[in-house]
Amino acid sequence: MELEPDTAEIGQKVTEYEKFLNERLKVDLQKTLDSRDEIYAKMSEYLQLKTNIERMQEVDFPKGELRTKVDLGCNFYVQAKVPDVSKIFVAVGFGFYVEFTHSEALKFIDKKIEHLTEHAERLTKDSGRIKAHIRLVIEGLKELQGLQDGPEEQEFRDIWG
Fold first, then answer.
1. Residue 2 confidence (pLDDT) above 90
2. Which of 50, 56, 71, 89 fits as disulfide partner to 97, beta carbons 3.0 to 4.6 Å?
3. What are the φ and ψ backbone dihedral angles of 69, each rounded to 5 degrees?
4. DSSP designation for 1
């Protein structure tokens, strides 16, 4: 003979699971996805720099100097003159810049992109695990509340599947 848990106890459990779902799992998922997006943005900047370096190697600059425009922010540009284009400064992290030759910079960028790709893959796996936990909690909530799979379930599978 099974004992039926009372409605107040079930309601309390449902509230606890919903709180865990909304205040922990969904927040963790958002942070993980935001971190991954930041990694992708950094990768994009390094790939753009790599393309620019490769183009600079193809062009022969007169007198070894480059005239360009620099964005100071808010689309406010000023003219700039680079006296020596044989070396460039690359942001290596933590606010530090290192002077590289073009070939050194390309090697560094390849290593950096490889590292960032691994980090993004880890974050993607983490987000998958968090999504699985969300799915598990939702299924537990359905079971506690005695809900059956309905048409909403199919929509959920399309979004999270």
1. no
2. 89
3. -115, 140
4. -
- Residue 148: predicted pLDDT: 57
Query: Which carries the bigger pLDDT value, residue 6 or residue 122?
Result: 122
CA–CA dist 14, 53 (Å, integer): 57
Count Cβ atoms below 10 Å from residue 40 Cβ, excluding itself: 14
Sign of the CA dihedral running 147, 151, 156, 161: positive
Vertex 107: Cα angle to 104 and 112 (nearest 5): 120
CA distances from 109 to 44, 45, 56, 116 (A): 11, 10, 15, 10
Write the DSSP assignment of 19-83 as a string of letters: HHIIIIIHHHHHHHHHHHHHHHHHHHHHHHHHHHHHHHHHS--GGG-EEEEEE-STT-EEEEEES
Which band of pLDDT confidence, cut at 50, 70 and 90, is reported for residue 161? very low
